[in-house]
Design brief:
The protein is mainly α and 195 residues long. Among the domains are: 79 residues, no CATH class; 49 residues. Helices cover 57% and strands 0% of the residues. It contains 4 helices and no strands. Helix 1 packs antiparallel against helix 2, helix 2 packs across helix 3 and helix 3 runs antiparallel to helix 4. The longest helix has 38 residues. It is elongated and about 90 Å long.
Length: 195
Amino acid sequence: MTGRDTTRDPCPYSIVSDFGVGFALGVVLAAPWHAFKGYRNSPRGERFSGALTAIKAQVPVRGGNFAAWSGLFNASDCTLQYIRGKEDPWNAIMAGAATGGMLAIRSGPKAIAISATMGGIILAVMEGVGIMMGKMMGGDDQYKNVAPIVPTDAQAPPPAQSAPQQPQAPQPDAFAPDAPSAAPQPLPKSRFGFA
């Protein structure tokens, strides 16, 4: 596939991963909302238990809704990547429209058309903002591979002349009992000033 995003998991695995991410996102976003609603709608003296009851009753439902949307979207996106053979913003826009339509399938053709249109528009706006932010922040140019500069024969440094090897004197064993104690050598300073 051209333009493959290497920061994500490959397609079959990302579908399952996005179900979990969607559920977690739904739970995190819904918990404060339903805690506030349960607290506000409970009588005095029972507000804390009312908030907990509202969280236990509503937050898993919202998490499931987010998981369903996220999983369907990613399944549609992966299917479109496979069919079209490339990964670009059009896949996400069409996947958003397909997800909106699939989630409204029980409500009739008019609701399917409206939800699919809204899903496509929302994803088009999100993709457009993502592209705009990417261009403002420097785009993809900073992460492109650059071919190394290989010197030609005219630029190559001359080969080093190897000097004949001189026999090395044997080094005394530092742990031998008769070895003289040498003063410790200071560590070289790093570029940050630490030893």
